[in-house]
Protein 1
Amino acid sequence: MKRYKLSVVAGAQLYFIASITAYLLLLFQFGTKCDNVRVAGLTVSYNGTATISHDEHSLVSQCNQNCSCSVTEWNPVCSDSGITYTSPCFAGCTSSTGQGKNTVFHNCSCVLTPSPVDGSKSVSLGQCPRGPECTQSFTSYMAVSVLSFFINSLGTTPAYMVILRCITPELKSLALGVQTLMMRTLGGITAPVYYGAFIDSICLKWGMKKCEGRGACRMYDSDMFRVIFLGLFTCLNGCSYVFAIAVIVLLRKQFSKEEVRALQQTASKRNETELQTPNMCISDGSKTDIRSTENTTEITHNSVVG
């Protein structure tokens, strides 16, 4: 602001322009989509049809209903068809080979195959990998985020300068302290609470603690996660621009009155100067006339004496 000699109103407008530009860029992140992992009973049915289920009992199907599987178990296995099963039991497997991470389960009755003859009825440990589109979406998301945060940072310093210029010197420290307190209270304490509550509501599979209690979420609905996370940020950030516009309007009114007052004072001083100038000229002229009269009198007196 000092380099370009920006006024308080111009500084507030610079902050608003930088912030709204960054805000519009973040809207492009809604297009960075990553599809859900195909998990039988959660995101797809055991027939391969896409569906979303928050009920753990949907993990039970005709192919595994006689296996007495635990719905709280999370030991994902991946089939050649790209469908993940929450455990070898829910995949309907009856045998296994190998040890540790190299374990392969066979004769899995729930695994879909192109035909009864062709295709493998085996699954391997681990969740099936996501598609390449997720990597591309992540790259786009990070690029937009970096560009948006950079543009938004251009308005940070003008925003602080507006605060400092609008407050009397003895109250500047208090104002910055109150601002920091509000930011930490609303953004650092309450935000994780309601953000966490909304995100927990889209969990598809919860883990269980050893002491019988709900643990961490094993799997989220990716589509709803994107909508809720970005939607909350967009709504909260959008509401803040109402106050930003109100501040700019108030600053314009306040400083326009001050400018008018300053112009009026300048005009009045100019008028006073113009009114005083002729009087001084007359005064000087009178003094000149008096001096010339005195000189003439002296010359006449000297000539008479001479």
Protein 2
Amino acid sequence: MFRFGLFLLLLLSSQVFGDTIVLKNGQKFENVKSEIQSDFVVFEWNGTKKSFPKKQLASLKLRPVLLNDPGTAPTKPTKKPISASDELAKERIRMAESFLGQFDWESEIGGKPTVAFLPLEAGEGVSSGEIETINQIFSTTLVQTNLFSIIDPQSLKKIKSEQEKFNPDCKTNRKDCNMLLGSLLNAQRLITGKVTKVGNILYLNAMVVDPSEKRIEFAESEVIERSKDIASGSELFSKKIAGGILEYYDVSYYSKSNIPNLIYLKQSAYFPGFGQINFGKEKEQNFAFYRGLTFGVISSILMFKAYTDYQSFQNEKDNYRESKDILLLSNTRSLDLISLWNEQRSLQRLEGSAAESRESVSLLGLVYLFSLVDTYYLPSLPNVLPKASMHFQMKPQTNVYGQKMNESVYSLELRYLF
């Protein structure tokens, strides 16, 4: 008994749980407190601050990190010492806020918990406006965490109404009915609760239920003392619940590999150079703009050439068929020789035209692919033409030869000024 008590004391006085980070190169960092930034994951390891791009992460598992003794006073003086429950609530909020506003995180197939949120009931004294506001903010915050697959309210309402139709007792939100509802929705976790009011103070209470095990996993509460704090209190309450679900649910997340310049890639896929031109205009990158213009002009020329080569191929094919028909219909030896020679010449021209058509199409495809590759690497290419500009100029010139001979020459100049 003494050893067990000593173990609990050591456990509470040191870091327990903690995030687990696994990199794609096999490195693993356990029991760390991670900070998710827009492009990097930052954490402290053995007294050293480490930072890795999100694309290098193979998986990230979020867990609460408890570093303080229950009742230990913090470094900065406060009115009351930090309790274990306060620190756990802070950690649950940290976990819930990890992916806020970041939609490039996914989990393994079937790994992201499916959560059903039953709107909190309104107790005595709670107005319809208050309960509706609390439920809306709660569900919105839950979705924004990007930690779960949330069952949409319409599906939940439909299943619940069907359940109440066959079992009228379920209209009172009986516990066993809620368990069954979670199973019908194929939800891994079900959130249910109630809001009560004493005076002007609102008390939010919720439970997270595991329908498959038919047990309450944990409960959370929040007190809102002023009506103007309903929004912030409901949001905080939702984050506590979200972090608490992760504490009990084993799920790992990874960052999706986003394709850079996807918008401009789509534009260049429609027509070579179009993406570079728009990128150059929006980012004021003249070098990208003129590269796109070059790709567009070259592609237009090649498309015209491919079209004319194909038309030439079709004409040669028709000529070959005609010469072959003449050869088959000839009835004299001299006409056979002429027809055979004409047929052979027509076949050679057809083969040459087919080769030219293939070359034109291949060259156009090569330029098309090169344009896409160039668009993909747009941000990494420098703007080497910061002051480049383009000017068109037409120069008329008249030459006189004798009394009755005049020659008018018009020259069109395209100038790039660097």
